[in-house]
Amino acid sequence: MARWRTLLGTAAAALTVATMGTLVSAAPATAAPVGNGGVSPSVVGGTTAAQGEFPFMVRLSMGCGGSLYSPTLVLTAAHCVSRTGANSSITATLGTVDLQSSSRITRRSNYVYRAPGYSSSGHDWALIRLASPVTGLATLNIATNTTYDTGTFTISGWGSSREGGAQQRYLLKATVPFVNDSTCNSSTMYNGQVSAATEICAGYTAGGVDTCQGDSGGPMFRRDDANAWVQVGIVSWGDGCARRNKPGVYAQVSYFASAIQSAASSLGG
Ligand code: ARG
To answer: Which of 97, 109, 225, 231 lies 20 to 30 Å from 61 when distance is taken between CA atoms?
Structure first.
């Protein structure tokens, strides 16, 4: 499955689960060259987001990102959580680009819903319910059809700014172009490993700009026709970060939209 592919050739499989599910500290010890020739200005190839620019961005205490789906629900990646059930161990930090800001909002989780199809392949999404609602922050709409599964996407997160690098205090952002399934599955890229219906690729052929460890679970989004942000992807996996011919691979939100909506309803909104 996706997690196992992510670090093949760069780290022992034993490290992989820890890296994907938890923290960047388990990132490959032998950092491979990044796609832009080793220069990573500060997500890889990004810049600092402005306070309030992406009010729906969530940092999760296991070292993942997420998006505010409703006042009580955070959409993230399945590989960031353990199992469906009561769970009060996760802290969500919201409302700030600076994770150390004294005005940050924090909430404990009280329940996790992991996509039932996750253990087989892909289906890398989950919902985390917060113990009390967050008011005053805009939520992020999800794409409910494939209309917006193309174009230029924004990626954002507090993950590594380079492969093997540290987590970030300040939220980073960047934009990446859509990569179609046939290109992403070509032999120079992922050679058939991407699930065309359920995953969406984005990045530059030359590399240099990408999500990275610790960005997992966070949203990939763009503007819709009404100029509102709409979430098209969930950070899932890639071969290293920002490498040439290795775009980021994201859970394709439009494919899972109805399942996400049903799960959200069952969790009380
Ligand atoms: N799975 C990683 C995480 O747990 C994110 C990997 C994204 N990789 C990429 N090259 N886009 O944070």
So the answer is: 231
- Does 93 score more than 60 pLDDT? yes
184 lines ligand 1 (CB under 6 A): no
- What distance in Å separates the CA atoms of residue 184 and residue 194, rounded to the nearest whole number? 7
Reply yes or no on whether 79 is catalytic.
yes
**211 CA distance to ligand 1 centroid (A)?**
6
216 is catalytic: yes
Length of the chain in terms of residues written:
269
Predicted confidence (pLDDT) at residue 132 exceeds the cutoff of 70? yes
pLDDT at 22: 27
pLDDT given for residue 206 in this prediction: 98
CATH ID of 9-51+142-254, from 3.40.50.970, 2.40.10.10, 1.10.287.70, 3.30.70.2210: 2.40.10.10
Residue of 216, 236, 239, 254 with catalytic role:
216
- Catalytic annotation, pick one of 70, 109, 123, 124: 124
Are the CB atoms for 155 and 176 separated by under 8 Å?
yes
> Can you name the residues that pair with 129 across neighbouring β-strands?
73, 111
**pLDDT in the model for residue 161:** 96
